[in-house]
């Protein structure tokens, strides 16, 4: 039995590989950068299998799945972790190609891989799918447009999988993290502008990849009768703000005069009815 983790070459995925292998699981780590996975293999040994896979391309997923060695081929855990945000521009300025890449990776890739792996879990009447959503799938923020929408998809897809998998013994959880540091997430989002990425984490203690990996291990170690549907994790330092209100022009001081004018004319009208 093995756990297939996508996005294993960096951030959360690499931490999950280390944590799960050390806890005794057999792990297949998938990503596009094979050299990073080979480094993990040197560190983790025979219980880890590196698998080059571009999840944004369904044909590449099919091809990669053919190269899983026999003793890793029974997959009873799938962690759909590969994903990315690109850009933080408003919807009227964002690069449409970035939107397509996020949809292709975060939605199509996750959905296609799940569809490929699920039948063997259902046939065995056991298995566990853990998806990496985000708080961006629940709480909107400026510039989160398509990234947040892809994570809202992941959230709802996870819940709908639970509905389809009723009675099969297959479990599904969606992990929804907030601000997390020590990953490549923001460097990717800001397209290599590492200074801008670093500013996000200045003087703040974000959630770390190990925190997410520990959460995954905890989920795996829950008894088979228990399903955690979703789990939202934020740094203590991150919280919620008031909803912004865009004030109308003319400025508020003009409003009482306008109100007086309107109510006087309404009063004149009503008076007219009783003449
Ligand atoms: N960090 C955060 O603040 C945060 C918060 C909430 C949710 N998340 C979510 O958590 C997940 C992991 O994020 P992270 O912070 O660990 O990011 P990260 O450090 O950038 O790692 C992303 C991983 O995804 C892989 N990946 C990206 N595109 C891929 C593709 N087309 N095919 C295969 N693998 C691909 C990357 O590997 P290759 O480049 O080698 O392919 C890398 O291993 C993502 O789904 C992200 O949306 C992150």
UniProtKB/TrEMBL annotation:
Alphabetically ordered keywords of this record: Oxidoreductase
InterPro entries named among the record's database cross-references: NAD(P)-bd_dom_sf (IPR036291), Sc_DH/Rdtase_CS (IPR020904), SDR_fam (IPR002347)
TM regions (residue ranges): none
PROSITE patterns per UniProt: ADH_SHORT
UniProt keyword annotation of Oxidoreductase present: yes
Family membership noted in the UniProt record: Belongs to the short-chain dehydrogenases/reductases (SDR) family.
Protein name (Swiss-Prot/TrEMBL): SDR family oxidoreductase
Lineage: Bacteria, Pseudomonadati, Pseudomonadota, Betaproteobacteria, Neisseriales
């Amino acid at each position: 039995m093995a756990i297939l983790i996508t996005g294993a070459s960096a951030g959360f995925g690499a931490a999950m590989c280390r944590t799960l292998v050390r806890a005794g699981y057999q792990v297949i780590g998938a990503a596009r950068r094979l050299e990073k996975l080979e480094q993990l293999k040197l560190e983790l040994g025979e219980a880890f299998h590196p698998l080059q896979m571009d999840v944004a391309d369904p044909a590449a997923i099919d091809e990669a799945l053919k190269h899983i060695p026999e003793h890793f081929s029974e997959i009873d855990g799938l962690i759909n972790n590969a994903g990315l945000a690109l850009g933080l521009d408003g919807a009227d300025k964002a690069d449409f190609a970035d939107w397509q890449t996020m949809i292709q990776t975060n939605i199509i890739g996750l959905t296609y891989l799940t569809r490929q792996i699920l039948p063997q879990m259902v046939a065995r009447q056991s298995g566990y799918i853990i998806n990496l959503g985000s708080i961006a799938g629940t709480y909107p923020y400026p510039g989160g447009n398509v990234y947040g929408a892809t994570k809202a998809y992941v959230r709802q897809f996870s819940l709908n999988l639970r509905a389809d998998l009723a009675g099969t013994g297959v479990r599904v959880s969606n992990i929804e993290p907030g601000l997390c540091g020590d990953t490549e997430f923001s460097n990717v989002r800001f397209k290599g502008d590492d200074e801008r990425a670093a500013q996000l984490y200045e003087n703040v203690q974000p959630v770390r990849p190990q925190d997410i990996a520990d959460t995954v291990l905890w989920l795996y170690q829950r008894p088979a009768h228990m399903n955690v549907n979703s789990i939202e994790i934020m740094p203590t330092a991150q919280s919620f703000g008031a909803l912004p209100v865009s004030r109308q022009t003319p400025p508020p001081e003009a409003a009482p005069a306008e109100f007086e004018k309107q109510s006087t004319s309404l009063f004149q009208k009503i008076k007219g009815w009783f003449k």
